[in-house]
Amino acid sequence: LHLVALNLPFSGDMRADFQCFQQAQLAGLTSTYRAFLSSHLQDLATVVRKTDRDNLPVVNLKGETLFDNWESIFNGNGGQFNIHVPIYSFDGRNVMIDPSWPQKVIWHGSTAHGIRLVSNYCEAWHTADMGAVGQASPLKTGKLLDQNVYSCSNQFIVLCIENSFVS
């Protein structure tokens, strides 16, 4: 399962699933991609199809392993990953070093177990209001699910996950 970033940072007001779908298509990827975000309808931990959660590695755009499987992201350790394995955008840039993402933080809106935090997900990702807040994680921590709260006006990295494997 590929974990890929959108080509630009976004505030808390985003149509992330649509952006993931569209950018994956433009990049020539044939699988379905969903935002790596909890939403008003779904917890982050359940975005990937149940049959693919524990038997497939989570890899970057170039196939380098970030996690042994989807389930391992949500074991409560904050989604710890090797910071020496880059996360790439759909257009092939390393979000950890590319200046297009000045703040190396990813939105997620979840607990460390991938459960939605309804008070901390920018009103279901529909507001960039400075007074609203969203849960996000600085990549320098080496965690995708670190528990930090930020104003929804921030422009952060949005990740997309291939939510069903197509061989």
TrEMBL record:
Domain Collagenase NC10/endostatin: 1-166
Alphabetized Gene3D superfamilies for the sequence: Mannose-Binding Protein A, subunit A
Pfam families: Endostatin
Any single Gene Ontology cellular-component annotation: collagen trimer
Top-level taxon in the UniProt lineage: Eukaryota
Protein keywords: Collagen
UniProt KW Transferase keyword: no
Protein name: Collagen alpha-1(XV) chain
Source organism of this protein record: Eurypyga helias (Sunbittern)
